[in-house]
Write a structure and sequence with these properties.
By secondary structure, this protein is an alpha+beta fold. It is built from 18 helices and 32 strands. The protein is globular.
Length: about 850
């Protein structure tokens, strides 16, 4: 495998001002399962197995919470019971007969270097959701193309087979086969990490419809699937009466053309056979299938119609060209890459655009049966029918899922819309010119059902106001969700600031202010005002929460620095929007509150050297308080990158969190801190010690802002080369000792989106300080939470919670103007993109500006549950 860019990476590491590892880890390919999604469903192609192994009925992991007859959520003893997505495919693949041999292609090794995501154009690599799988069989080269069909408003898949004679002699009598093993029986996962498990294959009924558009209809409890051949067939077969796999695998027999069983059977399988004929040297021929899933078992005719309309009479080769043109349109007309890219960075960003596109939910409706996982087990829904009247199941229901951006695609476990991940993704979409994608994402948060935890006892001491942004994440249908462990729920407040930052980023980068103009009262009262109300009267920071690493509650909540960083940045951005709209009272209140929170961070969350700590509580212990999430205090422009706080933080994170394998950091020190003594964070694990892509890339932004371009570039190149080695799927984490992929991939907001933001920042975006000026750090004595030394601030923060309705707050500390530049991207309509996004000064009269380089999305923490690793402790 070619790794020419390793030399460049080593050169970058050698040129940096920190001590690089003695030997940089060589990127290794360890991920072979490639997803494809059309926003309605998702499929997974396993290059090691040589076949498609999953077809999920939704792109997300869970639909909605289960409810009882009174409409109340159901507790299952550990979590709120959830209706999870089903995987309706066991596997699907092709087979061939050539040169006296007949076999199924999973038995043939895949050329891993020649396989991967297909190119969107002839002049550039990758950039699509089309997975190509190349398998040489002597002179015959078999290439499978698999994808979730863009534009099909349903879960579905297309499998195409190109057979090419690469030899010097003709190949005669070539035949092709396809085998489809769908599972449409009973069953659903009980937990999100089990969504990939197969459901039952009981009670399946198969029908065959012949003709030039030969197709099978298969139905069972989990719905119906129509599978259509894309070229005329010569034979077909149905199991289980015939062992279709063995028939092809153990001889040279044709498929039997047997009739489907007249009644429902278990373990139904279907297959097609095509006569490819003779192949001259250099010639190629194509066959293929397309399939669609509907949740209604009796929707076969409607599914046939929808699939036929999408195919539109096009054969397999032209169908691939048509699908490729959809991706070309995405790159040519719906996105724009930042300036200054190197040749090897272009494909990484092209695939980032593709991944972000695939990770956005497009469905706004779904068919719900009256039964949940088997006959007689009632299902209920909180959603109305398509006519907005209460739904009487079975029925199509209308939900709020459209626009949500998932944290990861399969096989990653985080196929949920997290607000942190989504904020990264949304800002990245705006920076990449994906205007409609970004706007739909922001609209999702404003339309989703939130505020569900306002009255929970955990939040009673805070007098939690009504709120719109989820305190954790969302079910796929757009309903606020949290998860539990022995320490109760996760309840997080950083999403409010992150939403406001992403909203302002969208405005500045696209020039479109319509969303905030149309929804301003909702944004002000249920997002920005909530942050004002959550100011901690003791410290002036945001009250204790579960924050970015999702530590849960019951004594594990902390006054995390990261939450206050995002709050300060978000309120500065809210002030900019309010100022633009002429809402002077709110602009003043949000600006003053944001500046006060920033002052509190400097006063309460810095150690004796001036370095930022992860939380007030950890800092008070005097050690073990280092957390890479605080990179965003610099990356988001709260503190001068060349000032004392930033420089002390750089040194501290390097001293305490640097990993062995690469140029980055562990996410925090919780795995090792406070040995043999009482610990403020006793839950550390190898999820904490792993090197996190998100903190690497946020660190890159901060370092570049400080003038450390070589270090910043080394981090970007490290992430890029790792992803390129693994089919441009960006990791969640790297092993801190070996550098190999660890835990989940492909990540979106924390991966593809964070990479795009780092390059957008390099091109000049996301450059202005919060509220128009950096914090002044050298005028007042220390008021830190530890006695390890002195640090300077601008004075005591205001710890009085401002009243959102009056805008009457007081500011603390002075500010200093930062140098600005005019470089960077230009917003829509030729308006100069400023306010923290391009380095220009604000043109709306507000000193607050939108965005230091994007706030980090949730750096995910897996915890153990029932012997399985789960997200966050």
């Amino acid at each position: 495998m070619t790794r020419s860019s390793s030399v460049a990476l080593l050169a970058l590491l050698a040129s940096t001002s920190f001590a690089a590892p003695a030997t940089a880890a060589e990127p290794q390919r360890t991920r072979f399962a490639l997803p494809s999604s059309n926003g309605w469903g998702a499929l997974l192609v396993d290059l090691k197995a040589g076949k498609v192994t999953e077809l999920r009925e939704h792109a997300f992991a869970a639909e909605e919470p289960e409810i009882d007859e009174q409409g109340q959520d159901i507790w299952d003893g550990e979590q709120f019971a959830t209706i999870h997505t089903r995987d309706v495919l066991y596997d699907a693949y092709f087979g061939v007969r050539a040169e006296g041999e007949q076999l199924w292609l999973p038995s043939v090794p895949v050329d891993e270097d020649a396989s991967g995501y297909y190119a969107w154009s002839d002049s550039e690599a990758v950039g699509t959701g089309i997975v190509s799988m190349v398998q040489p069989l002597g002179a015959l080269e078999a290439t499978t193309f698999a994808f979730a069909p863009q534009g099909l408003k349903a879960a579905g898949m297309v499998l195409l087979l190109r057979l090419k004679n690469t030899g010097q002699q003709p190949l005669q009598g070539v035949q092709a086969f396809s085998l489809h093993n769908f599972h449409l029986g009973f069953g659903r996962a009980n937990r999100p990490w089990d969504v990939h498990e197969d459901i039952g294959n009981n009670g399946e009924t198969v029908e065959f419809v012949g003709g030039n558009e030969a197709r099978f209809r298969e139905r069972g409890f989990a719905g119906t699937i129509v599978t259509q051949a894309l070229a005329p067939i010569v034979h077909r077969g149905v199991g289980p009466g015939v062992d279709l796999f063995a028939l092809v695998d153990q001889g040279l027999a044709d498929l039997p053309d047997n009739a489907p069983p007249p009644n429902a059977v278990d373990n139904a399988t279907t297959a097609f056979q095509w006569n490819v004929g003779d192949l001259a040297p250099g010639a190629e021929k194509w066959v293929g299938i397309a399939a669609i899933h509907r949740g209604d078992p009796f929707a076969g005719a409607e599914a046939e119609t929808a699939l036929g309309a999408w195919i539109d009479g096009v054969g397999p080769q032209l169908l691939l060209a048509r699908e490729r043109s959809v991706w070309a349109d995405l790159h040519q007309d719906q996105s724009k890459l930042p300036d200054g890219l190197t040749a090897i960075e272009v494909p990484m960003l092209r695939q980032a655009v593709a991944m972000l596109h695939m990770g956005q939910v497009l469905e706004d409706r779904s068919f719900a049966r009256e039964w949940l996982s088997q006959d007689g087990e009632p299902r209920r829904t909180r959603f109305p029918g398509l006519d907005e009247d209460p739904a009487v199941l079975p029925a199509w229901i209308k939900h709020h899922g459209r626009g949500g951006v998932l944290a990861s695609l399969p096989p990653g476990e985080w196929t949920y819309s997290w607000i942190r991940d989504g904020a990264y993704a949304t800002a990245a979409m705006a920076a990449l010119g994906m205007r409609e994608h970004a706007k739909a994402s922001l609209g999702f948060y404003l339309d989703a059902e939130a505020g569900r935890f306002q009255q929970w006892s955990e939040l009673q001491p805070y007098a939690m106001p009504p709120y719109q942004i989820s305190l954790v994440r969302y079910y796929g249908f757009g309903v606020e969700e949290t998860d539990f462990n022995a320490f109760g729920p996760n309840l997080e407040f950083d999403g409010f600031g992150l939403f406001l930052w992403a909203l302002r980023a969208y405005e500045v980068l696209t020039g479109d202010t319509s969303l905030a103009d149309e929804r301003w009262e909702q944004i002000a009262t249920k997002v920005a005002d909530v942050l004002v109300a959550l100011v901690d009267p003791e410290t002036g920071m945001i009250r204790a929460d579960s924050s970015i690493w999702e530590t849960h509650w019951l004594g594990r909540q902390r006054r995390f620095t990261y939450t206050s960083i995002t709050a300060a940045r978000g309120l500065c951005d809210a002030a900019a929007i309010a100022e633009r709209r002429g809402d002077a009272a709110r602009a003043d209140m949000y600006r003053k509150t944001g500046e006060s929170i920033r002052a509190a961070i400097a006063a309460r969350a810095t150690d004796g050297d001036g370095a930022l700590a992860g939380s007030v509580e950890e800092l008070a212990t005097g050690e073990g308080y280092f957390d890479a999430a605080v990179w965003d205090a610099i990356a988001m422009g709260l503190f001068d990158p060349q000032g004392p706080i930033a420089q002390a933080t750089f040194a501290a994170l390097d001293d305490h969190l640097r990993v062995d394998a690469g140029p980055g950091w562990s996410r925090n020190d919780d795995r090792w801190d406070h040995a043999m003594m009482e610990d403020a964070t006793p839950w550390g694990s190898d999820y904490d010690s792993a090197e996190w892509v998100i903190t690497d890339l946020r660190g890159s932004v901060a370092l570049r802002a400080a003038g450390e371009a070589a270090r910043a570039d080394a981090l970007i190149e490290w992430v890029r080369e790792q992803a390129a080695t693994n089919y441009y799927m960006t990791a969640e984490t790297f092993d801190e000792k070996t550098g190999v992929y660890k835990f989940n991939s492909p990540m979106l907001g924390f991966g593809a989106g964070a990479y795009a933001l780092a390059l957008a920042h390099r091109a000049g975006a996301f450059a202005d300080p919060a509220c128009g000026a950096y914090f002044v750090e050298d005028e007042a004595p220390s008021t830190t939470g530890t006695d390890t030394g002195d640090t300077t601030t601008t004075g005591e923060p205001d710890t009085t919670t401002a009243a959102p309705t009056t805008g009457d707050t007081t500011t603390t500390g002075t500010t200093t103007e930062a140098p600005t530049s005019t470089s960077g991207v230009t917003s829509a309509g030729g308006v100069s993109a400023t306010a923290g996004l391009t380095g220009g000064s604000s043109e709306d009269g507000c000193g607050c500006t939108s965005g230091g380089p994007g706030a980090p999305g949730a750096l995910l923490l897996l915890a153990l549950a029932r012997g399985r690793r789960r997200r966050r402790a």
